[in-house]
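Regression test case RT-17, inverse folding.

Input:
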């Protein structure tokens, strides 16, 4: 038989039992819609965490002293010697952090000030929106310049391009006026609305504005060369600081890139777990389709016998039941995905998945429909025409 005739006959069989067909389609619609909602939530969360980690600009190695004693300090000068001595270091920058406030006019906000130099862009992945980061001359002479986030710019001036504007910074109890030389994408904003409200703004100033080159740095950020393993570079850094540097205290080297990769792996596992929960929901719906198709095969035993007696082949009967099951699941799947898509569109447009995910879910629904109809199709195709007509 032609596929067109089989499709028409399959549709006729579904319409012959409207209540059963509607209930089966409803169960598939609920399963498919739930799967789409869960997949959209999981993928959106994974995407948001990945974007947040990238916006925060973290990566490479972080070197710091723990429980410092009376030995040498992990200073900026020692960090420069470290960069020349260890071959696996691609870029390195000492960092000094202090808390304080930023004021413009009558408004003031709390902030964390990070002392950095001209290597800021090479060590941290910052998205520069306007202006530029520190130059070598500005960092060396400790010029009163500052790099701020776009969130802080919006807070004070209602716009992001504030290059050239002056801000009053209070650092360590001392006030001073600094000129904005660059605006970057706000890093704490990537943490989300609730967390970014608690986290202060990150403001970058020249390292010399916070500490001398002989003072102990809070940490040294290191970017490893591509051909070197971070663990190998970490061991070389530790040996150098204990040997040549004679630092006092316990040297700690954290692989920030490894921590970022671990977080991303956890987000992927979470998304996969969400998909597994949604798949269970769809499987429960498919069990109902299987029962419905078995019941239909039993009720239409006599019709199947007449169908075979008139010259139909067993493969035609098999195709008929498979098409009927696939058509049932596809119709329910389209309805469920349409309802879930409408819910996402009106509730949270950011969660809307791409067309590829919808196409994949529709294909999975069709395959599951074929799997659910395989057993009833095989049973119907094996019937003997004479015995079937007698029943």
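Golden output:
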């Amino acid at each position: 038989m032609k596929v067109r005739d089989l499709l028409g006959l399959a549709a006729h069989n579904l319409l012959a039992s409207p209540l059963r067909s509607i209930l089966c389609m409803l169960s598939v619609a609920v399963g498919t819609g739930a799967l789409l909602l869960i997949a959209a939530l999981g993928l959106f969360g994974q995407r948001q965490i990945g974007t947040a980690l990238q916006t925060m600009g973290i990566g490479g190695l972080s070197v710091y002293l723990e429980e410092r004693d009376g030995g040498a300090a992990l200073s900026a000068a020692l960090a420069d010697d470290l960069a020349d001595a260890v071959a696996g270091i691609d870029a390195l920058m000492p960092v000094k952090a202090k808390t304080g406030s930023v004021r413009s006019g009558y408004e003031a906000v709390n902030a964390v000030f990070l002392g950095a130099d001209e290597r800021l862009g090479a060590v941290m992945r910052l998205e520069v929106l306007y202006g530029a980061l520190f130059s070598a001359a500005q960092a060396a002479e400790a010029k009163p310049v500052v790099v701020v986030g776009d969130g802080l710019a919006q807070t004070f001036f209602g716009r992001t391009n504030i290059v050239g504007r002056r801000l009053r910074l209070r650092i360590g109890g001392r006030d001073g006026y600094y000129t904005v030389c660059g605006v970057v994408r706000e890093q704490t904003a990537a943490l989300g609305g609730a967390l970014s409200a608690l986290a202060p703004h990150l403001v970058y100033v020249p390292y010399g504005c916070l500490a001398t080159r002989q003072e102990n740095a809070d940490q040294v950020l290191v970017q490893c060369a591509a051909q070197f393993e971070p663990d190998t570079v970490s061991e070389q850094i530790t040996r150098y600081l204990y040997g040549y540097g004679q630092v006092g205290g316990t040297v700690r080297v954290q692989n920030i890139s490894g921590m970022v990769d671990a977080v991303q792996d956890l987000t992927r596992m979470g998304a996969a777990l969400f998909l597994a929960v949604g798949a269970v929901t769809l499987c429960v719906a498919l069990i109902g389709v299987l029962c419905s198709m078995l019941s239909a095969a039993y009720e239409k035993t006599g019709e199947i016998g007449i169908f075979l007696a008139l010259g139909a082949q067993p493969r035609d009967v098999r195709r008929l039941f498979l098409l009927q099951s696939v058509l049932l699941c596809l119709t329910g799947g389209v309805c469920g995905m349409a309802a879930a898509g409408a819910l996402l569109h009106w509730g949270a447009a950011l969660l809307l998945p791409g067309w590829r995910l919808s196409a994949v879910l529709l294909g999975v629904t069709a395959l599951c429909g074929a799997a659910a109809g395989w057993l009833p199709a095989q049973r119907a195709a094996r019937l003997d025409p004479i015995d079937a007509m007698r029943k």
